Amino acid sequence: xxxxxxxxxxxxxxxxxxxxxxxxxxxxxxxxxxxxxxxxxxxxxxxxxxxxxxxxxxxxxxxxxxxxxxxxxxxxxxxxxxxxxxxxxxxxxxxxxxxxxxxxxxxxxxxxxxxxxxxxxxxxxxxxxxxxxxxxxxxxxxxxxxxxxxxxxxxxxxxxxxxxxxxxxxxxxxxxxxxxxxxxxxxxxxxxxxxxxxxxxxxxxxxxxxxxxxxxxxxxxxxxxx
Length: 226
Hints:
By secondary structure, this protein is mainly alpha-helical.
């Protein structure tokens, strides 16, 4: 392996004029807030706010970051994990990019736990059908859209959006008993109330009175004829 003796990067940059350093920083970080409408750098504005040392530190940060990125990218994942252990970093990942970021920024990494629903699809499903995820119903469809689907399939429409989404998922899973609106014939059916004994006796009493009145009328008719 050939070894070349190089001077410190700071030694190269610190002898440069401040406007040259500003140009280098502009190429790295854009500095769009410090440019006019024609894209020209506002040197005086930058000089008033930052010193030459500030620009030098910004450049050196990028030099070391890009240098480390390139160096670490040449290593295997196992070697990078060993480096994390040496630096006492807890990095729970086999992703090379993630491990390199943790090494450069000297930070731990623990992946976020995925919810049971998982993540929503990037693209909105073309329609609601079996196999769709609840998270997609909530993320990609408005409440009116869910209600329209419910009305088209006789699904109950009460509740907030998450409740309606859960009901649609149950419907798509084959649940008809708890998700569908009751048929018209079964809605609000009035129960027949049995008549009390007192009411029944009153009706019989009325019937007797009618019969007596009828007999009386018949007898009167016979007397008139005779």
